[in-house]
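Most newcomers find our protein records easier to grasp once they have seen one. A learned vocabulary of local backbone shapes supplies the integers on the structure line. Here is such a record, shown just as it appears in the course material:
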Amino acid sequence: MAWLDQFSLTLIILACVLLGLAPFFPEPHIWEKLKMLAAGDLSRPLDIFDLVLHATPFIALILKLIRMWQVGK
């Protein structure tokens, strides 16, 4: 996970806001895809790719925070 140390926390948070939540209206895209996943409607490959694309910044943020916590220990 050393590659994660190269990215600043600010950059990852910015990616979460811009890529993870875009488009913002009428609702964040990731929220729409998560609702589809919960309802069992997430079956098209394009929708699955879209979910992965919009979830990646949030996964990177979680991994970065875990890494920061481990290194700081």
